[in-house]
Write a structure and sequence with these properties.
The complex is a heterodimer of chains A (286) and B (375). By secondary structure, chain A is α/β, with parallel strands linked by helices. Helices cover 36% and strands 20% of the residues of chain A. Classes of the chains: A alpha/beta (286), B alpha/beta (375).
Amino acid sequence: MTREYWKWPESRWTLNDIDWRKANIITAGIDIGSVSSQAVVLCDDKLYCYSNNYTSPEIGDNAKNTLDRALETTGLTIDDIQYIVGTGYGRDNIPFANATANEITSHAKGARFIFGPAVMTVVDLGGQTAKAIKLYERDRIRDFTVNDKCAVNMGYGIEVLADLLQVPIEEIGERSLSDSEDPEPVSTTCNTFATTETMGLLREGMPEHEVLASHLFAVAWRLYALIGRISPEKEVAFTGGLAKNMGIVKRLERDMKMETSMSDYDPQLAGAIGAAVVAQEMLASR
Amino acid sequence: MHRFKEVLDNRHEYAKNWKARTGGKVLGYFEPYTPEEVIYAASALPVRLLSRHEPDDMTDRNIYASCACARDIVNQVALGRFDYVDGITYAEACQWMRHAFISSQYFQSFSYTCDIFVPDYVDGHRSKDVMYSEMKAFKKSLEEWTSNTITDEALDHAIDVYNTNRRLMRQIYELRRADNPIVSGAEAMEMVLASQVMDKEDHNRMLQEVLKELPRRSHAGYPGPRLMLVGSPTSDANLERLVEELGAVVVIDELCTGSCYFWNEVIPQEDRLLALSLRYLGKPHCALKDNNWRRRPAHILQLYEDFNAQGVIIAKQIYCHPHGTDNPHIWKILRERIYPFHFLERDTTVPEREMKTRLEAFINLVEPVRVKLRG
């Protein structure tokens, strides 16, 4: 069987130290993205469980399956959750959500939950979109920017690259950092041009790690141009699936001349966590 | 109110009916610097060639990588939608519209074409003289084409009709200054767009009727944050409608297809063509014409403050070079005053979902804590 290099592992997790029956407030956030979907449950102010899956074409079922998977083995059911907020591009198609929040708000709140209140700039590196969000106190958005129609080689583009080079997607970032200096970047204007150029470099016999470095340098270059529009301020936090790609993160840190915040949480959960935080706020404002 | 949208949606039928009714000629124009009064005085109907934003597979062969407006006008010509248009004129503006003006002639033969030079430095020392001489040449060529002599009386009448229209549109826009405007941004944009494809006397009658009806309109509840729209020309009110569906209200625009089209009047003087020259040179600067003597930033800020806006949406057509060049300066002046703004790029087709997310987030930015409840 042909190996699928683009596949990243789906996951689920429960914090067994918490007894959800003792929680005063139980909320859930569901983030239906273009490539991946996440469901998280917050018990009071703690992350209790989550799941992280591929997005399937049937969004309603997809949302239900993602939440069911998060709730597996916990004994918790949808009926026990007091408020559910949907976010992400599929947010309007989650039939059991009580409300929806747009993903810019969700990522802002999720990043503050994950990385702490000192975060002033959030950069979400998603499957198809990149968002740079600048914040005031109390999670209020000060400025934001999003890539337009072009996907600027976000998560989906990296999946294509993994298959093209036959490098497991989790290893792309680290392998691209083998040399201390980057080669010239491939096209910085277009994902499709960049992929074509990458194939050309391979044919010319460039070593694999240099091809990866050239490609990820171009991705970081484009992202840096996007982030620069909002004049990022410290602390900076990266969220989304590509925040796990050190090849992009390290290059962006170098370009921005700033180190980014670190956390034990999976940064891909930020949108869903933010939606669950919005759900808590909705309950509190009732 | 809905009649303006009807005319806009059925603009080709309207023009065909006008031709059948009057026997006059229709002159299509590309840019708002076209002195419409002179056309009107020649008993022809000036019609702005507006795009439709339909996907097409034809224009890239002729007009590659131009803005969606220019490409789509050529597409509409190629599809025969402007088959009633007898002549076309281009008053010097952006290169994309010049491209559309030239490319359109490959797809349809026109009995009249005219290229009017409008100085890029509209406030320059010689601009008035240049515009005046272009105006005289334009008048002469129109007289030859239509076989109608353009008399001073006809020019006076045309100026009166157009100034009346400008005054009435200003009255409509003034209503949007209210805390709870009784005219939405989408409605106002449809009115001003309709005026560009109609006989102005018909449009004036419709405006007068609407202005009588409007005081009876009941005020809705709180309309949401007040936004201003700035940017490239458009041919519909879809963006305004989307913003207003998301719970905000567009209270003012600075578009050449919107307020800039009618904002200033012709100040009558003995030499009618000179009066017209000064009116067109003195209109709110478009991004292309805002050069050494910059008036556009001050105009935007004035509108923002007069209409009590709380944020600005800057919507540029993709590949629109005048606005692409001017935008960094507009961003700068808005940032200096801490006026919130968001920049969008429009194309022939725009993914509504993606645009909706961004507009929602911008409305949240202007007025925080907005979550959409279901059911």
